[in-house]
Design goal:
Layout (H helix, E strand, L loop, with lengths): L7 E3 L2 H4 L2 E3 L3 H5 L5 E4 L4 H5 L4 E6 L2 E7 L6 H6 L11 H4 L3 E5 L7 E6 L3 E3 L6 E2 L9 H29 L3 E3 L17 E4 L1 H5 L3 H9 L2 H11 L11
Antiparallel strand pairs: 1-7, 2-8, 2-9, 3-5, 4-5, 4-11, 6-7, 10-11
Length: 235
Amino acid sequence: MLNEYLSHIPLSYAEHAHLGWRFSLEQVLKRRYKWLPISLSELARTSAYFPVVIVQQRQRWSMAVLLDESLELQANLQGSEAAKERFLPMCLQAYPFSLQPSADNKSGAQLCVAESALATLKERGTLPLFGENRQFSASVIDRYHLLYRIKIDAEIAHSACELLARKGVLILISDVERQLTRIKDHSVPLYRINIDAIGRLSREDFADLQMHHAMELGIYQYSSLFHVNMFHHYS
């Protein structure tokens, strides 16, 4: 979802001990995004201000917040009460780092960094990547902990969305939904909750959704679509 992740490389003390990293929040806020991935733990807050959809990519389910792509991210946030607390999706808080599958095919993930964020330690505003004992620096460890939290959230959200799909309560956003047509990304299937299908569930299926975070996720997602009209070009 984030083009920046395409150029991420594994962090290595041998290769990067002499380098640091830089992060400009202002630069991120000036970018335009059509949508951004969000974590399960930020769903309640995000859905109170922005429309959220369910996404399927390579057999994996996740959630994304929809933004007005004609505006910079900061302008999107300024149109919401969330901006008062400098709301920034966790995926951007973790930037320029990411967790990627280990290259040696072993279990686990490897901490990676965007090449564009690397800089010499002498450059102004550069933070170290490593400490004196070859361990990650405090600033990098903070990003790693955030990424690990996102990873755990992602597994729970995937399982919950997968369960919603099995129960038949997810519906593909289609051209016949005039209010939602303009928010489609034709390269990636976007889904929403079918609230009528939830009403037809058996008591057992309903309880199953409640037990696995799926019902909570579904209700927040469904209610968030009332914010679609916040986009000036969707009216």
